[in-house]
Here is the input.
Amino acid sequence: MAEAPLKAFVCGHPVAHSRSPLIHGHWLALHGIDGIYERRDVAPHDLAGFLAGLAGAGYAGGNVTVPHKQAAAALVARRDAAAEAIGAVNTLWFEDGALVGGNTDAYGFAAHLDAEAPAWRAARRATVLGAGGAASAIVHALAEAGIAEIRVVNRTAARAAALAARFGEHVGGHGWPALDGLLADSDLLVNTSSLGMTGQPPLAIDLAPLPAAAIVADIVYAPLETALLAAARGRGLVAVDGLGMLLHQAVPGFERWFGVRPTVDAALRDLVVADLEALR
Ligand code: ATR
Here is the structure.
């Protein structure tokens, strides 16, 4: 009898916008793997039941996206170190029959910067805009890279302070008015806020105070070239878009479920860019 195909999923609510099926479908075809990666729209009140039924439904694991990342962290049997630090789970797999939750967002961010702007690892001071779930993953990545001073700047200063407090003394929280002063000695600036995303207000900040060797990264990838990145390039700074993080964060999950470590290459990037453009 033929073996059943390996199965994985992305669960969210809504989930129609997720690019994960396109990414994993590309790798499944490329590697000739008899596998399935599907979208599952799961309402918040159904999440616990959905996760409890994964093994019975034949899933090797899957991805968790908005709004379930924090809730999933509380529902798994155990978490990897990144999920523990970030307080959110985006990747699920089984170990000895137990459901494990990991977080590959920080890995994805770091892997993309390693490819596009390797000098980021020498940064001494980094400034992070935003204090939501995405900021938590980015701060974890920066802390893991050993960046000595990380400043979280947010519209709601109390949220920045709360995030900073979770990470210890090398991370500080600030309100927007502090931004200009902080930019002046920032080696790295990362936008994790939703500003600049299609349908959201633009991120209108003056990059003039940034040092000439600063790196600017945006985790927004729709549009791919945000006003922030365009302004950074206009100033001659290294600018890193948000799409690479999305592509790289998918690598560890694919390897766990399907047994092959895939690579992020130009063909995959072109595929996702074309999909984003088709929606514009
Ligand atoms: P995620 O989990 O994806 O990071 P989130 O928790 O909703 O999403 O966080 C969105 C971030 O964008 C927050 O830092 C938010 O600032 P507040 O904490 O003050 O809400 C920021 N953000 C969203 N809209 C904004 C706006 N119009 N001006 C400034 N910051 C904004």
